[in-house]
Design a protein that fits this description.
about 240 residues; alpha/beta; four-stranded parallel beta sheet; 8 strands; globular
């Protein structure tokens, strides 16, 4: 199976090791992995800020870069995946590339969803001795309808004690520019999420979205709290 990588901007710039770990897992499962180095932003930041014309221009470039012979386009981000699958049809409604959008949407998956729902993989032979809790990102839960897939994968990681925190489906407060425009509210929401995680006795928070984890980790480091953050790809690539 051929897989084209869809690496979001912030993963490329700030967390490249997660992208490499995603490749490690996919190759272990027998996938042929490809990446277009000309790939840039999918257009979500501009769209969320209200600049639909600019977002459409960026999205057109993204579409051209990812119309390939690969069977699937896979991303370590439910946020970016959700944007392509849910908002590209809106941006390009009744356009000449409508059918290309429909095809791209059908082949685009978030990483954990792809592993479970397409490859049928759950036990990857990973191991990580740690007590952890899982954070449902808003994009994964509400836009991509991802809930059980990450938990199925994490339940098979040897040594990982996964404990659910209360209010697990509540937003962490990041929300892209929301965290900049409404910093006090954003930080308060992050504090609530972190406190809920600490109440479980967890040593780490795991999620599908590094945008959430980046926000949470900033608050954790500022307060010097005993918590780590891990993207699920980093967990699944550990121990082998």
């Amino acid at each position: 199976m051929k897989v084209q990588l869809f690496i979001p901007c912030f993963v490329d710039q700030l967390y490249p090791s997660t992208a490499l770990n995603m490749i490690k897992v996919l190759e272990k499962l027998g996938c042929t992995v490809d990446y277009n180095p000309n790939q840039t932003c999918c257009g979500q930041p501009a769209f969320n800020a209200g600049f639909q014309t600019e977002a459409k221009a960026v999205a057109e470039k993204f579409i051209k870069e990812n119309i390939s012979h690969a069977d699937y386009l896979v991303a370590p981000s439910a946020s970016c995946t959700g944007f392509v699958c849910n908002y590209y049809p809106q941006l390009f409604d009744n356009s000449s590339i409508h059918n290309q959008i429909k095809d791209l949407r059908s082949r685009t998956y978030e990483f954990s969803s792809f592993l479970v729902n397409v490859l049928g993989a759950e036990d990857l032979g990973a191991s990580m001795k740690m007590k952890a809790t899982y954070h449902d990102s808003c994009a994964a839960l509400r836009e991509c309808k991802i809930k059980e897939e990450p938990r199925k994968l994490l339940s098979r990681v040897a040594g990982l004690d996964l404990i659910e925190m209360k209010d697990v489906e509540t937003c962490c407060g990041f929300g892209g520019t929301f965290s900049i425009k409404y910093e006090p509210i954003s930080v308060a929401m992050a504090d609530q999420k972190i406190n809920n995680a600490l109440e479980t006795g967890a040593e780490a928070i795991i999620s599908t979205d590094l945008s959430c984890l980046m926000h949470l980790n900033g608050c954790i480091e500022k307060k010097q709290l005993p918590l780590q953050t891990f993207h699920i790809a980093d967990v699944l690539a550990s121990g082998w």
